[in-house]
Predict the structure.
Amino acid sequence: MMSLGRFTGLALTLAWGTATGLSAAGTATAADFYKGKRIKLTVGSSAGGGYDTYTRALGRHMFKHIPGSPKITVQNMQGGGGLKSVRYTYLVAKKDGTEFANIRASNMLDGILGIRGMEFEADKFNWIGSMASDTDVCMFWHKSGIRTFDDLIKKQPRIGATGKGAQAFMFPNAINSVLGTKMKIILGYKGTSDRILAVEQGELEGSCGINGYTFVSRLNKHYQAKTLVPLMQSGLRPNPLLKDVPMTQSFAKTKEQKEILDGLFSQMVIARPYAAPPGVPAGRVKILRAAFAATMKDEAFLKEAARLKIGIDPSSGTETEAIIRKLAGMAPTLKQKIKKAIGQ
């Protein structure tokens, strides 16, 4: 007769073996699905800007952490300040785990506030994670005559944006409305590179809507030469590379002004978010989230990020989803104030 101890040991051994087998089977199934596949990673901006730089770095390393090592192809889909890419991902992209995208938090806030993009719901995306928190920097050409915040109240410097759904429109328009500045926002630019070229040529006098890490990395020659002067940064905490640049909220004169700006700028906690469309099987979302998280710790990836001078301060898929839900859960009165501030 088998003793109770031997029976228990055998049962545990069988249970462990079964669990291991199921785990191996799950991995094998994932590998079978992704092997030989090509994942399309969409970025809602033109080549050369911050979103593009982050996304291409992610694509060059994330495939290694997906079972079956599928190839990842980055596709640029600019338009509407990122809104074209969001609509494509939500409504058109394949829902089998072979497509995901850089989804701007500003586009999500647009939908949450009922401004544009009401055909998608922010919390229905399958959030994969965010590569960094950051700030949005307002900077001005050294010959523009804009040196202080008071200059923005006295003068009307020209700045550019892709469209009304872009951070480069929403943030300065809100700063104008809440703090009394007079920046003139000209729409129709393709992306960061296009706007900076316009600044260099004298067509524009400055730019907002450029993240802090992008300013330091992609525009380093201007940063070092002080030909582009950062005047303020918008977010909930300073970019660690721009600690001497004042926060936009520091110019608020009332509690209400600060509350509106904090609500709008809170999206910068997830400045580089990625999501798959609704309807992707939960198991494949889990695989993409795990691969994203592993990439954020990948030594080769981190070395490349350091070389590119892009900051990595990641949030997991679960954390990113929670932040999106918090944005959606803002008090209706605050939503209306923010909506009014950004000119909608």
Q: What stands out?
A: Residues 136-267 form a domain with the D-Maltodextrin-Binding Protein; domain 2 fold (CATH 3.40.190.10). The longest strand covers residues 228-234. Confidence is low (pLDDT under 50) at residues 1-26. The CA atoms of residues 112 and 329 lie 9 Å apart.
